């Protein structure tokens, strides 16, 4: 299963390598609670826009594909930003495009390029507020994971640069260190994210009722529903409605406005980006 494969890859990679709430609410995250962790969606939660699009821009600059392919990436990004939701058809098209582009290239090459692309296009698009939420968990001694449908190599770079524990992402198949143009399992999206988080929690000995999850998309309601502390960050309309009905905490960094129920103060929103000292996820490879 895609979730189990992603969780196992993340655990192996990390083995290799708090603030008071307003209104008198209990302190969260709880310092020293090693059975708690935090899980963050990536696109429009940690980063403005879609990581895959920014990665595509960097590959185009390096002549990995043609102008018409870039136009397709641009259309997908425009849809994402205007609609504010993850459209499955557009996401599938983006993944298929990315897989065809990297087919035949070496994994090591894409990892190296990913580092450059992060500096060129992604670093300035990290939401400071969400970054500070992740740092609060790290400062409390908790592990923090990205959980994203984006390719694992992209998630790997971002997690390491932000000093996070690791990442769960969609895994592209490689044989002999070369991409085949296929996936290992299914994309890590929707229910698959919840499956991956559940598998990781079992392996890490986490108590999900003490964990937190953060996302902008209603597609991640299965993941958010797993934990005791779900947060809707920059939520789409469906997630905002769902969160309000269930009294989940809300935060919107797109306009600077605050939701009524917030567990971690906005003062943390201007925190500096931490150095990338934690290990990130290693690519899970299928070998013959």
UniProtKB/TrEMBL annotation:
First and last residue of the signal peptide: none
Recorded superkingdom: Bacteria
Keywords for the protein's UniProt record, in alphabetical order: Hydrolase, Magnesium, Membrane, Metal-binding, Transmembrane, Transmembrane helix
MF-aspect GO terms: hydrolase activity; metal ion binding
SUPFAM superfamilies tied to this protein: HAD-like
Ranges for region Disordered: 1-28
UniProt feature coiled coil, ranges: none
Residue intervals passing through the bilayer: 262-283
Key word Phosphoprotein present: no
Family listed: Belongs to the HAD-like hydrolase superfamily. SerB family.
UniProt xrefs under NCBIfam families: HAD-SF-IB (TIGR01488), HAD-SF-IB-hyp1 (TIGR01490)
Name by which UniProt lists this protein: Hydrolase
